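Progress note, sequence design subtask.
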Protein backbone atom coordinates (compact mmCIF):
# COMPACT_ATOMS: atom_id res chain seq x y z
CA UNK A 1 0.00 0.00 0.00
CA UNK A 2 1.36 3.40 -1.01
CA UNK A 3 1.74 5.76 2.00
CA UNK A 4 -0.46 8.88 1.88
CA UNK A 5 1.32 12.21 1.54
CA UNK A 6 0.83 14.44 4.56
CA UNK A 7 -0.92 17.20 2.63
CA UNK A 8 -3.40 14.65 1.24
CA UNK A 9 -4.08 12.95 4.57
CA UNK A 10 -7.63 14.05 5.37
CA UNK A 11 -7.65 12.36 8.76
CA UNK A 12 -4.59 14.34 9.80
CA UNK A 13 -5.74 17.61 8.22
CA UNK A 14 -9.00 17.48 10.20
CA UNK A 15 -7.27 16.58 13.46
CA UNK A 16 -6.58 18.81 16.44
CA UNK A 17 -2.86 18.65 15.69
CA UNK A 18 -3.41 20.22 12.25
CA UNK A 19 -5.48 23.16 13.49
CA UNK A 20 -2.62 25.56 12.75
CA UNK A 21 -2.57 24.31 9.15
CA UNK A 22 -6.30 24.93 8.76
CA UNK A 23 -5.97 28.42 10.25
CA UNK A 24 -3.12 29.21 7.87
CA UNK A 25 -5.25 28.04 4.94
CA UNK A 26 -7.95 30.56 5.91
CA UNK A 27 -5.32 33.28 5.59
CA UNK A 28 -3.37 32.16 2.52
CA UNK A 29 -6.21 30.94 0.27
CA UNK A 30 -8.34 34.12 0.60
CA UNK A 31 -5.22 36.26 0.20
CA UNK A 32 -4.41 34.45 -3.05
CA UNK A 33 -7.95 34.84 -4.36
CA UNK A 34 -8.24 38.51 -3.41
CA UNK A 35 -5.03 39.24 -5.29
CA UNK A 36 -6.13 37.18 -8.29
CA UNK A 37 -9.52 38.89 -8.52
CA UNK A 38 -8.12 42.37 -7.85
CA UNK A 39 -10.09 43.02 -4.64
CA UNK A 40 -8.04 45.53 -2.65
CA UNK A 41 -10.61 47.95 -1.22
CA UNK A 42 -13.92 47.18 0.42
CA UNK A 43 -16.71 48.95 2.25
CA UNK A 44 -17.81 46.56 4.98
CA UNK A 45 -21.49 46.31 5.90
CA UNK A 46 -22.41 44.80 9.27
CA UNK A 47 -25.80 44.09 10.81
CA UNK A 48 -28.28 41.46 11.87
CA UNK A 49 -28.85 38.31 9.84
CA UNK A 50 -32.44 38.39 11.12
CA UNK A 51 -33.61 41.67 9.60
CA UNK A 52 -35.78 41.07 6.56
CA UNK A 53 -37.40 43.45 4.04
CA UNK A 54 -40.09 45.58 5.60
CA UNK A 55 -39.09 44.68 9.15
CA UNK A 56 -37.64 47.61 11.06
CA UNK A 57 -37.73 49.78 14.13
CA UNK A 58 -37.37 53.48 14.93
CA UNK A 59 -39.07 54.37 11.65
CA UNK A 60 -36.51 52.55 9.51
CA UNK A 61 -36.71 49.71 7.03
CA UNK A 62 -33.14 48.62 7.70
CA UNK A 63 -33.00 46.14 4.83
CA UNK A 64 -34.19 48.66 2.24
CA UNK A 65 -31.83 51.35 3.50
CA UNK A 66 -28.80 49.04 3.51
CA UNK A 67 -29.63 48.02 -0.05
CA UNK A 68 -30.04 51.62 -1.16
CA UNK A 69 -26.74 52.69 0.38
CA UNK A 70 -24.84 49.79 -1.18
CA UNK A 71 -26.39 50.53 -4.56
CA UNK A 72 -25.31 54.16 -4.41
CA UNK A 73 -21.77 53.21 -3.38
CA UNK A 74 -21.49 50.61 -6.14
CA UNK A 75 -22.73 53.07 -8.76
CA UNK A 76 -20.39 55.77 -7.44
CA UNK A 77 -17.26 53.62 -7.46
CA UNK A 78 -18.01 52.17 -10.90
CA UNK A 79 -18.29 55.67 -12.31
CA UNK A 80 -15.45 57.30 -10.39
CA UNK A 81 -12.66 54.74 -9.98
CA UNK A 82 -10.48 52.66 -12.28
CA UNK A 83 -10.98 48.92 -11.83
CA UNK A 84 -7.89 48.51 -9.61
CA UNK A 85 -9.15 51.14 -7.14
CA UNK A 86 -12.84 50.23 -6.95
CA UNK A 87 -14.56 49.71 -3.63
CA UNK A 88 -16.34 46.38 -3.23
CA UNK A 89 -19.43 45.83 -1.09
CA UNK A 90 -18.23 43.34 1.50
CA UNK A 91 -20.32 41.53 4.11
CA UNK A 92 -20.38 38.27 6.02
CA UNK A 93 -22.23 36.87 3.03
CA UNK A 94 -25.36 35.72 4.84
CA UNK A 95 -29.01 36.83 5.05
CA UNK A 96 -30.52 39.95 6.60
CA UNK A 97 -28.48 43.13 6.34
CA UNK A 98 -25.70 41.22 4.58
CA UNK A 99 -28.10 40.11 1.87
CA UNK A 100 -29.56 43.61 1.65
CA UNK A 101 -26.17 45.18 0.95
CA UNK A 102 -25.41 42.62 -1.73
CA UNK A 103 -28.87 43.04 -3.23
CA UNK A 104 -28.11 46.74 -3.64
CA UNK A 105 -24.65 46.12 -5.03
CA UNK A 106 -26.01 43.59 -7.53
CA UNK A 107 -28.40 46.20 -8.95
CA UNK A 108 -25.28 47.91 -10.29
CA UNK A 109 -22.83 45.04 -10.79
CA UNK A 110 -22.83 41.71 -8.89
CA UNK A 111 -19.08 41.52 -9.50
CA UNK A 112 -18.70 44.31 -6.91
CA UNK A 113 -20.01 42.03 -4.13
CA UNK A 114 -17.70 40.09 -1.80
CA UNK A 115 -19.21 37.61 0.69
CA UNK A 116 -17.21 36.18 3.58
CA UNK A 117 -19.52 33.43 4.78
CA UNK A 118 -19.05 31.14 7.78
CA UNK A 119 -20.27 27.68 8.70
CA UNK A 120 -22.87 27.91 11.48
CA UNK A 121 -25.59 25.54 12.72
CA UNK A 122 -28.35 28.10 12.01
CA UNK A 123 -29.12 31.39 10.24
CA UNK A 124 -26.04 31.50 8.06
CA UNK A 125 -26.12 30.66 4.37
CA UNK A 126 -24.58 32.39 1.40
CA UNK A 127 -27.04 34.88 -0.07
CA UNK A 128 -27.79 34.63 -3.81
CA UNK A 129 -26.27 38.00 -4.75
CA UNK A 130 -22.62 36.91 -4.40
CA UNK A 131 -20.91 35.33 -7.39
CA UNK A 132 -18.81 32.20 -6.84
CA UNK A 133 -15.53 33.93 -7.66
CA UNK A 134 -15.94 36.36 -4.75
CA UNK A 135 -17.64 34.00 -2.29
CA UNK A 136 -15.60 32.70 0.64
CA UNK A 137 -16.37 30.11 3.29
CA UNK A 138 -14.73 30.26 6.72
CA UNK A 139 -14.68 27.98 9.73
CA UNK A 140 -12.90 30.30 12.16
CA UNK A 141 -14.65 33.49 13.24
CA UNK A 142 -11.39 35.31 13.93
CA UNK A 143 -10.06 34.67 10.44
CA UNK A 144 -13.31 35.83 8.91
CA UNK A 145 -13.20 39.01 11.02
CA UNK A 146 -9.57 39.54 10.03
CA UNK A 147 -10.51 39.67 6.36
CA UNK A 148 -13.60 41.80 6.99
CA UNK A 149 -11.29 44.44 8.48
CA UNK A 150 -8.08 43.89 6.47
CA UNK A 151 -9.41 45.23 3.18
CA UNK A 152 -11.99 47.65 4.59
CA UNK A 153 -11.65 51.35 3.82
CA UNK A 154 -14.96 52.13 5.47
CA UNK A 155 -17.44 50.32 7.73
CA UNK A 156 -21.18 50.71 8.27
CA UNK A 157 -22.92 49.10 11.23
CA UNK A 158 -26.67 48.58 11.02
CA UNK A 159 -28.62 47.28 14.04
CA UNK A 160 -27.59 43.79 15.03
CA UNK A 161 -27.06 41.33 17.84
CA UNK A 162 -24.08 39.67 19.48
CA UNK A 163 -22.16 39.17 16.24
CA UNK A 164 -22.56 42.77 15.09
CA UNK A 165 -21.54 44.09 18.51
CA UNK A 166 -18.51 41.80 18.51
CA UNK A 167 -17.44 43.11 15.11
CA UNK A 168 -18.05 46.74 16.09
CA UNK A 169 -16.06 46.63 19.31
CA UNK A 170 -13.22 44.71 17.74
CA UNK A 171 -12.89 47.34 15.01
CA UNK A 172 -13.10 50.17 17.55
CA UNK A 173 -10.44 48.49 19.70
CA UNK A 174 -8.13 47.98 16.73
CA UNK A 175 -8.58 51.61 15.73
CA UNK A 176 -8.18 52.94 19.28
CA UNK A 177 -4.92 51.03 19.73
CA UNK A 178 -3.51 51.93 16.33
CA UNK A 179 -3.53 48.37 15.00
CA UNK A 180 -5.43 49.55 11.92
CA UNK A 181 -5.51 52.91 10.21
CA UNK A 182 -8.47 55.17 10.85
CA UNK A 183 -11.33 54.62 8.43
CA UNK A 184 -14.84 56.09 8.49
CA UNK A 185 -16.90 54.00 10.92
CA UNK A 186 -20.61 54.76 10.73
CA UNK A 187 -23.28 53.62 13.18
CA UNK A 188 -26.50 53.65 11.20
CA UNK A 189 -29.53 54.55 13.33
CA UNK A 190 -28.63 56.91 16.15
CA UNK A 191 -31.67 56.03 18.28
CA UNK A 192 -30.83 52.34 18.17
CA UNK A 193 -27.13 52.73 18.96
CA UNK A 194 -27.47 55.40 21.64
CA UNK A 195 -30.18 53.34 23.33
CA UNK A 196 -27.91 50.29 23.25
CA UNK A 197 -24.50 51.67 24.25
CA UNK A 198 -23.87 54.75 26.36
CA UNK A 199 -20.55 55.78 24.86
CA UNK A 200 -20.57 59.14 26.64
CA UNK A 201 -20.89 57.39 29.99
CA UNK A 202 -17.83 55.30 29.21
CA UNK A 203 -15.89 58.50 28.58
CA UNK A 204 -17.32 60.24 31.65
CA UNK A 205 -16.23 57.33 33.85
CA UNK A 206 -12.73 57.43 32.40
CA UNK A 207 -13.10 54.02 30.82
CA UNK A 208 -12.31 55.40 27.37
CA UNK A 209 -10.71 58.69 26.41
CA UNK A 210 -13.02 61.55 25.38
CA UNK A 211 -11.48 61.51 21.91
CA UNK A 212 -12.44 57.85 21.51
CA UNK A 213 -16.03 58.90 20.95
CA UNK A 214 -14.77 60.46 17.73
CA UNK A 215 -13.72 57.12 16.29
CA UNK A 216 -17.23 56.69 14.90
CA UNK A 217 -20.17 58.78 13.75
CA UNK A 218 -23.92 58.32 13.83
CA UNK A 219 -25.92 58.53 10.63
CA UNK A 220 -29.66 58.30 10.17
CA UNK A 221 -30.24 58.12 6.46
CA UNK A 222 -28.74 56.95 3.19
CA UNK A 223 -27.91 60.46 2.02
CA UNK A 224 -25.91 61.25 5.15
CA UNK A 225 -24.01 57.96 5.07
CA UNK A 226 -23.24 58.25 1.38
CA UNK A 227 -22.05 61.85 1.75
CA UNK A 228 -19.46 60.84 4.36
CA UNK A 229 -18.27 57.73 2.54
CA UNK A 230 -18.03 59.29 -0.92
CA UNK A 231 -16.02 62.15 0.58
CA UNK A 232 -13.70 60.17 2.83
CA UNK A 233 -13.11 56.76 1.28
CA UNK A 234 -9.52 56.37 0.14
CA UNK A 235 -8.13 53.28 -1.61
CA UNK A 236 -5.27 51.33 -0.11
CA UNK A 237 -1.91 52.66 -1.30
CA UNK A 238 -0.25 50.67 -4.07
CA UNK A 239 1.60 47.57 -2.92
CA UNK A 240 5.32 48.20 -3.04
CA UNK A 241 7.33 45.69 -5.04
CA UNK A 242 9.85 43.56 -3.21
CA UNK A 243 13.48 44.49 -3.73
CA UNK A 244 15.30 41.83 -5.74
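Output:
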Amino acid sequence: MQPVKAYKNQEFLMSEEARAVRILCEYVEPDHRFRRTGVRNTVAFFGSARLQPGIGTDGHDWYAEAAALAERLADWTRERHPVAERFYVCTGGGPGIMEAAHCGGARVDPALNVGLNISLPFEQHLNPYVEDERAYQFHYFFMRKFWLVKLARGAIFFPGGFGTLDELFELLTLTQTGKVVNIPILLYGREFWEGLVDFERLAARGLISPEDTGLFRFVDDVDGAFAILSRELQPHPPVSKAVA
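Strands lie at 41-46, 87-91, 113-118, 135-138, 152-157, 185-188, 217-219. Work on this subtask will continue into the next period as scheduled.
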